[in-house]
Amino acid sequence: MQTTNQDESQQLSMPIISELDHFLYPFMISPIFISNLNFIKTVEFAMNHSFPIIITPIKPNADVEELTINKIYPAGVIGSIMRKTILPDGRIKILFQGIKKVKITKIISENPIIGEYEAIETSEKSEIRTRAILSILKDKIAELLKYSSKIPQDILNTINDSNELDRISDIITSSLSLSLDQAYELYIESNIENRMFSILEKLDNEIESAKIQRDIKTKVQNNIAQHNKEHFLKEQLKQIQKELGVDSQREEEIEEYRKKLEAKKDFMSEDAYKEINKQIKRLSRMHPDSADANMAQTYLEWILEIPFGKESKHKLSIPEVENQLNIDHYSLKKPKDRILEYFAVRELLDLRGVKDSQNRGIILCFYGPPGVGKTSLANSIATAMKRKLVRIALGGLEDVNELRGHRRTYVGAMPGRIVSGLIEAKEINPIIVLDEIDKLGRSPRGDPTSAMLEILDPEQNSKFRDYYLNFDIDLSKAIFIATANDISMIPAPLRDRMEFIAINSYTPMEKYHIAKKYLIPQELKKHGLKSNEIIVSKKSLEDIINLYTREAGVRNLRRRISSVVRKSAKKILENSSIAKISITAKNLKEFLDNSLFGIEKIDPTAKIGIVNGLAWTSVGGAILKIEVIKTEGKGGIKLTGKLGEVMRESGSIAFSVVKNLFETGYLIDNPNFKFHKNNEKDIEIQNIDEVEKPEIENLKIVKKYKNIANFYDLHIHIPDGATPKDGPSAGITIATAIASSLSEKAVRGDTAMTGEISLHGNVMPIGGLKEKIIAAHRAGIKNIIIPKKNYERDLEDLPQEILVDLKLIPVSHFEEVLKFMFDLKYIDKELKNSQNNQKININGVENESESESEEIRDNQ
Predict the structure, then answer these.
(1) Residues 450-485: pLDDT tens digits?
(2) How far apart are CA 832 and CA 826, in angstroms?
(3) Stronger pLDDT, 489 or 597, i.e. the higher one
(4) Per mean pLDDT, which range of 121-125, 449-453, 577-581 is the poorest?
């Protein structure tokens, strides 16, 4: 082995140790701990032969078991081992002094580890440039010492005591935070100027990094100092409050408010955040016993419960909605189809990423009689969409502040019902049911319908302002569904914002299936009974529907079934031997009281002045008998029966129409009218127009005169008198009764009618036809006269199982009503015009044969 005093141009070899993660420099005396067995053997070999050794770093993640030149950094420092110590754990510790940097060229032996090397020579340098570079280095080191504590403070003294650039560069390099690769590049650089310039660049980076670190450290220290100061002051304040008897819990509550606000900051508007934050600061400055503090705290407790950012993420699915509607409701095909269309549009908009659309703003309004399932449809929608349901009862609401909230200056102020509903639902997009929207009232405290306009308008409800909140809140994500009994009571501007879906009365057959499939199983489960413990026969269920309830919906039917189930449960408990109870038509009275309603069958006998009308009520349809009698007078009319303004007008119009038919000769020229005078023989009148009034009185033939209506007073009565009655559908019924009374001609008793009449005798369409048809069928009516327009547009909506037993007669003019009700064969219109006031011998016209009359009725 060649030693270091040989010719430096020759290849030299020396033991190598590579168990460090940093470079050593020639001026260093360093302790080194060695644990690898090969390196320990190499140290022993070097000491036994008094050889120097080379120390070089090993590359990261390199395996030293089979050391190669590629696993180490091929540069290091050659030096001597000053001392060796064996440690108890098997390692050795050596004290190493570096002498000179060398470059390793090859590993020639692995046990011990010996490698060839060559010296790293430094190029010659200019004294002037050296001094210039050295001056810059000192300035950079001095600047770095201002910002960094990692650099030894005596490094400047060391540099000032030396003029060797090699030594100075090694001292600076060893003090910098460099990676092994960066240190290696500087380590093997033989051009001293290039090395110094690289060091200057590294110093600049170190200075910038140190400045940033100092700024960050200063800010952190300031924040910590401020926090410590606040903590110290708060602790002092707590102790002071404790001495004064003030509860420190208030500070914890205020801090909790701040945490809740920050958690919801990203989901609320900027105005909302500012308002809430302002109130928190105000509360922290107030005395806890002041009235304003209590008001501010109540406000924060309400506002921070609003579910900003919380919403149902369930994806809308039309099959789910359809399935839920079918599970919860029987029949209602058209309402279900319209609901599915509504949500199909919403799903399509979601799939195609359309955010703003008028279709999203459509407000559905279910309207119909009580108990038909308006609110339960909304429940089914909420269940299918996995959203919370909020029900807001609007019946009788008069104060607009109930919807908009009360201003905080009022005692007991709180948010409006809409915001309270969101808080109750704990999500920002629930299903909100506006129940009984037709019963909103007005008062001096405001008009709630005006506030409802903003709530239901998609262009406005994204910025709905509650007076209590004092900032806007977005309601556009909620789905609003309204319910109503009578849409005519809803103001027109509010109606314009809703789409109405009619939910009509149930037929007895529909009620039967609803009771069998839904009500009975639900009530059995509610009362803890099994399905095989109570058997309800078909006839008994039909009797419950027909004799114990009279309603459009099924609410009272549920109550009756519940009563039956309760009494059955009592019997089962009282007698343990009873395994099953059968409810039949015979024993039904044991479970229910006497029937509340009977099926009042109409009398089909033809009568004078009595006509069967049809009416719509809030609980379904009803038969409305209209009675008219005449007394001698001067052509006045009197209406009784607690009638509304609309029905009184219908009575006046009907009287004018019938009076006109007499005056024009329509009801006199007909050959089937035969007037009688006290059972005497018929009196023939050749020319009625030429008969003078005194002669009429003498002959007592006022009945045959075309102005007959002017000589009688009419009394029109609609039983029963205690029940309010109103509506535009009794015109033709009143007119028929008046015509029957004045002409003393009996009208059919097996027929009912509905329809409004105009002054010219036109029959106008009506509403509630389905309910009226059901009532007529229940009463045993065989023929029903309805407006022709209703026949054309509403026939598909009528229950087919009922239409089988009924004959519908569509009419467009009142003359058609008279033709059917009086069984008359009218003179053709052209024939009437050709006669032009000719004499008509009433007694001279022969009666129609019975077969001809039947043929006429069939043709009608």
Answers:
(1) 888 888 887 777 888 888 988 888 888 888 999 998
(2) 9
(3) 489
(4) 121-125
Structure tokens belonging to residue 818: 């008279």
The answer to whether 839 is a known catalytic residue is no
Quote the CA–CA distance of 96 and 625 in Å, as a whole number: 126
Distance CA 561, CA 582 (A): 13
Q: What was the pLDDT predicted at 255?
A: 86
Q: Which residue in the block uniquely carries the two structure tokens 């050794």?
A: 53
| Among the listed residues 457, 237, 285, the one whose alpha carbon sits nearest the alpha carbon of residue 363 | 457
> What does the block give as tokens for 739?
């015509």
What span, in angstroms and rounded, lies between the C-alpha atoms of 681 and 672? 16
pLDDT digits (tens, 9 = 90+) for 515-529: 999 999 999 999 888
The DSSP output letter for 518 is I
Question: Which two three-digit tokens encode residue 722?
Answer: 């205690």
Residue 210, sorted as left (phi over 0), alpha (psi -120 to 50) or beta, turns out to be alpha
- Name the amino acid, one letter, at 214: R
| CB contact at 8 A, 277 and 261 | yes
Write down the catalytic residue from 264, 630, 704, 772.
Answer: 772
pLDDT above 70 coverage of the chain, percent: 84
Q: With contact defined as beta carbons under 8 Å apart, do 774 and 621 qualify?
A: yes
> Residue 600: its pLDDT value, please?
67
Is cis: bond before 328, omega within 30 of 0? no
Contact present, 617 and 772 (Cβ < 8 Å): no
d(CA 29, CA 55): 12
- Measured in whole angstroms, the distance separating CA 436 from the mean position of its chain's CA atoms is 19
d(Cα 391, Cα 422) in Å, to the nearest integer?
11
User: Is 772 in the active site?
Assistant: yes
111 close to 37: Cβ distance less than 8 angstroms? no
Helices 249-264, 192-244: inter-axial angle, 10-degree rounding: 130
- Is 70 exceeded by the pLDDT of residue 2? no
CB crowding 511-538: b at 16 or more within 10 Å, else e: bbebbeebbbeebbeeeebeeebbebee
Smallest CA-to-CA distance from 358 within 431, 456, 459, 478 is with: 459
- Reported as half-sphere exposure (CB side, CA atoms, 13 A), residue 85 has a value of 9
Determine the pLDDT at residue 343.
Answer: 85
Q: Which tokens go with 67?
A: 């050391």
Per-residue tokens: 470: 């004092």
Low-confidence winner among 54-58, 156-160, 320-324, 481-485 (lowest mean pLDDT): 156-160
Sign of the C-alpha dihedral, residues 467, 468, 469, 474?
negative
- Type of residue at 47: M
Residue 170 structure tokens: 């090694």
Q: Strand pairing of 751-753 and 610-617? A: parallel
Residue in 169, 729, 741, 743 annotated catalytic? 729
Average pLDDT over the chain reads: 79
Residue entry with tokens 């007499």 = 662
Burial pattern 749-765, b for ≥16 Cβ within 10 A else e, equals bebbbbbbbeeebbbbb
The token duo for 217 is 């450290």
Q: Is 435 exposed, middle or buried (0-12, 13-18, 19+ CB in 10 A)?
A: middle
> For residue 701, what are its two tokens?
């033939």
Q: Sign (positive/negative) of CA torsion 432, 433, 438, 444?
A: negative
pLDDT digits (tens, 9 = 90+) for 370-420: 888 888 898 898 888 888 999 998 887 888 888 888 888 888 788 989 999
Q: Are 335 and 432 in contact (CB under 8 A)?
A: no
CA angle 353, 356, 361 (to 5 degrees): 120
Q: Output the DSSP codes for 762-825.
A: BEEP-S-HHHHHHHHHHTT--EEEEEHHHHHHHGGGS-HHHHTT-EEEEESBHHHHHHHHTT--
64 vs 746, more confident = 746
Question: What b/e readout covers 13-28, taking b as 16+ CB neighbours within 10 angstroms?
Answer: bbbbbbbbeebbbbbb
CA count, 13 A, side-chain hemisphere, 730: 33
